[in-house]
Design goal:
Blueprint: H1 8-15, H2 22-43, H3 78-85, E1 88-90, E2 93-95
Length: 103
């Protein structure tokens, strides 16, 4: 049977690279029909005056004031924290383990 002669559910299964039996195709066809009928009933609802909302609940953005912050070096114990994270220190530089593996 060519692709043009397949029932719609079998065409969908073929496009999705799924192998389904005839009873499965029958069951899936009935389920798809129910889903499409539900969409039709939703489209029949009058939504005049209803503003579109992409979220189910209201989202509020709470911005914080943007300004300078202390860096680790400005903190009294900042260098102690850095030395603990990168113990191999050479003057004002810290040596860290190599993270990229050579292939």
């Amino acid at each position: 049977m060519s692709d043009r002669n397949l029932p719609p559910i079998q065409k969908l299964a073929l496009l999705a690279r799924l192998e389904i039996s005839d009873p499965e195709a029958q069951r899936l066809g009935e389920q798809l029909k129910g889903i499409l009928e539900h969409f039709e009933s939703i489209q029949a609802i009058d939504l005049t005056g209803v503003e579109a909302n992409p979220y189910a609940i209201e989202r509020i953005n709470v911005p914080r004031e943007d300004g300078p912050i202390e860096t680790l070096q400005e903190l009294p114990r900042g260098t102690v924290i850095l030395e603990r994270l990168a113990p191999d220190r050479e003057e004002d530089h810290y040596r860290v383990p190599k993270m990229i593996q050579e292939s």
